[in-house]
Specification:
The complex is a heterodimer of chains A (176) and B (465). Chain A is of the alpha+beta class and 176 residues long. In chain A, 26% of the residues lie in helices and 27% in strands. Chain B has 465 residues and is mainly alpha-helical. Chain B has 2 domains: 330 residues, Cytochrome Bc1 Complex, Chain C, CATH 1.20.810; 83 residues, Cytochrome Bc1 Complex, Chain D, domain 2 (Orthogonal Bundle), CATH 1.10.760.10. The chains are: A alpha+beta (176), B mainly alpha (465). Chains A and B meet through helix 1 and strand 3 of A and helix 7, helix 8 and helix 9 of B.
Chain lengths: 176, 465
């Protein structure tokens, strides 16, 4: 015995099919969205990971205390706290080290506080000068002229067992 | 024998794939007959992009995207690999061509009012492509991974750091960490060869789809404004009456111009060669003179010339406002006159941008604000004395760094005023005050110079008549 398709049954059938289509469309969209999120979320996390990772701070030996004359500013090279194995020469950085007295040292970042270019020490003029936009700093790192908004950043420096050590730190990007 | 065989193979391939059925109508679609040489810049940009893809793939087969090895691999490509120098050269001049052509294409589209109804989305996708092209240029320069590249990354991070609240994190995102290191280059490599090109491929496809859908705009004519309500019908009637098939009636100009661009890129790469590599990417080598590639020199000048108090606003807001303005253009006016002679403000805006970028480019090329770190000492003929205060003052002028910023008779930097004839302008007291106290852009030398040295220096400067 077959069921008669009355107009009312027909309407019901249409509605059921619409519900089914709507359900299938929604489940497809949800499945697509969920699978996309499964790929995207870890990918974005991987990309942003460097922002969350804080490098350890280490004291790096830059030479014997006796290597540096009082009143003289020299450039010293030190290695990052935890360089990646393939970093090569980019693991290195530099600082301007000035021996103020027998025991006291000051270490300046080489980065101009304007836009980060490496400043050069002019010993006869007792000035640091930036090659990019002509920023000038006094021997104590204070701004002498030009566009730099701040003095040169100073790194922590100490003397232990006759060796001078500078603490590794992030690149001094502080905005203006 | 051979030709019939090829024709037979083609018929089978076409039967199974439907290529001719799909592509034929696109190639044959009617375009305005008057769209002549003015419209070749978009396709030429695409030709330059294809050169970039081909040469980029070739370079990627040998380039090592590791911070420790990239420089050596580039040295190998340039000096040892067969055709390596040519590939690098073509990639560099291809990038330059792409920047120039995308700029001309945008300017021409704006001047012809082709961004108006119904081509607003063409314009918006084109603006995205313009910015992505500049992004490719910047990231590509960094992949050269020499000293200049490393310091360019630092300058980029410093600018990102100016953003309020997120500045520090934005800078770390650029560096891929707290410092330049192993992760920095890998990040830029991924952006340069995967992320940005992927976006360009997608948006170019969309852009071309819109060109087909909305049609190539007819040449503008004064007194023939765009009326959104009737434009589409009018345009189709125009094509029905005067249209010509895109292939080959219009496309031959695109092919000839695009091929010429490729030939120019090839010849430049062959004759001039790729840009020389700078020193190794060692951040501890302090003597560096970072400069962007030529197409961003104008921005280098902006950073040097803006007053310090405005820096943050200009660094952060100017690019944002510029981008917003470009995106807003079709929303500000999508109807009315298209002809440049009826749109003087549009012509003025393009001229203003050309003159501004041109002037800044010249300034960036000269970079007078950068000190000269190695000026030649003044010869005796210029000094005019070999002993006495004037000669001693000239020595001090060189030794104490004055000459790094000041020029005397074409010797020295240009950051400060030319002092060739300073003795005519300033007397002894004025010179002494200026040397001891400095000025806005000059350091004070009171703590550096001995009184006798100041006297000698002033004597030398007074003798500059």
């Amino acid at each position: 015995m077959t069921q008669q398709m009355t107009p009312k049954n027909n309407e019901q059938d249409k509605a059921d099919r619409l519900d089914r289509r709507r359900f299938l469309a929604r489940i497809s969209l949800w499945a697509g969205g969920a699978s996309a999120a499964l790929v995207a979320v870890p990918m974005v996390g991987f990309l942003l990971a460097p922002l969350l990772r804080t490098k350890p701070r280490l004291w790096r030996d830059v030479g014997a205390q006796s290597d540096f004359a009082v009143g003289v500013t020299t450039d010293v090279v030190l290695e990052d706290a935890s360089p990646l194995p393939w970093a090569g020469v980019t693991a290195k950085t530099a600082a301007w080290l000035r021996r103020e007295s027998q025991e006291e040292f000051t270490a300046f970042a080489i980065n101009c506080s304007h836009l980060g270019c490496p400043v050069t020490w002019l010993p006869d003029a007792s000035l640091f000068m930036c090659p990019c936009h002509g920023g000038v700093y006094n021997r104590d790192g204070s701004v002498a002229a030009g566009p730099p908004p701040r003095p040169l950043k100073q790194y922590p420096v100490r003397v232990r067992n006759g060796r001078v050590e500078i603490e590794t730190t992030a690149l001094p990007v502080e905005g203006a | 024998m051979f030709v019939p065989l090829l024709q037979k193979i083609w018929r089978v391939v076409d039967d199974r794939t439907g290529i001719a059925e799909a592509v034929g109508p696109i190639l044959q679609h009617p375009v305005p007959a008057d769209a002549r040489w003015a419209y070749v810049f978009g396709s030429a940009t695409l030709a330059a992009f294809i050169v970039q893809v081909v040469t980029g793939i070739a370079l990627a087969t040998t380039y090592v995207s590791s911070a420790g090895d990239a420089y050596d691999s580039l040295n190998f490509i340039t000096n040892n690999a067969p055709f390596g120098s040519l590939m690098r050269g073509m990639h560099f001049y291809g990038a330059s061509a792409m920047v120039v052509l995308v700029g001309i294409h945008a300017a021409q589209t704006f001047l012809h009012g082709s961004y108006k109804f119904p081509r607003e989305a063409n314009w918006l996708s084109g603006v995205l492509l313009l910015f992505l092209t500049l992004g490719m240029g910047f990231t590509g320069q960094l992949l050269r991974w020499d000293q200049n590249a490393v310091w360019s990354v630092v300058v980029g991070a410093e600018q990102a750091a100016r953003a309020p609240l997120i500045g520090e994190k934005a800078a770390q995102f650029v560096l891929a960490g707290e410092t330049i290191g192993g992760a920095t280059l890998s990040r830029f490599f991924a952006f340069h060869v995967f992320f940005i090109p992927g976006l360009i491929f997608g948006i170019v496809g969309f852009h071309l789809f819109l060109v087909i859908r909305n049609g190539i705009s007819e040449m503008p004519r004064a007194g023939r404004p765009v009326h959104p309500a009737t434009y589409r019908q009018w345009y189709h009637e125009l094509l029905a009456k005067e249209g010509v098939p895109f292939w080959p009636d219009a496309a031959w100009r695109d092919v000839i111009f695009g091929a010429s661009v490729v030939v120019i890129i090839f010849v430049l790469a062959l004759v001039i060669g790729p840009p020389a590599l700078d020193k190794p990417p060692d951040p501890s080598i302090i003597e560096a003179y970072p400069r962007p590639d030529w197409y961003l020199l104008w921005y280098f000048a902006v950073l040097a010339l803006i007053p310090p108090a405005w820096e943050n606003w200009i660094i952060l807001l100017a690019p944002l406002l510029g981008a917003l303005l470009l995106f807003a253009i079709p929303f500000l006016s999508n109807h009315g006159e298209r002809a440049p002679e009826r749109r003087p403000w549009a012509v003025g805006a393009v001229l203003f941008v050309i003159v501004m970028i041109g002037a800044l480019w010249v300034a960036g090329e000269q970079a007078h604000w950068s000190p000269d770190f190695h000026p030649d000492p003044l010869p005796a003929a210029v000094v005019g004395a070999t002993s006495g205060p004037v000669a001693t003052g000239a020595e001090l002028f060189h030794k104490k760094g004055c000459q790094n910023c000041h020029r005397v008779a074409s010797y020295g930097g240009r950051r400060g005023p030319d002092l060739t004839a300073v003795g005519r302008r300033l007397d002894v007291a004025q010179l002494t005050t200026r040397i001891l106290n400095g000025g806005t852009n000059m350091p004070a030398f009171a703590g550096v110079l001995q009184p006798a040295e100041v006297e000698d220096l002033v004597a030398f400067l007074q003798s500059r008549q």
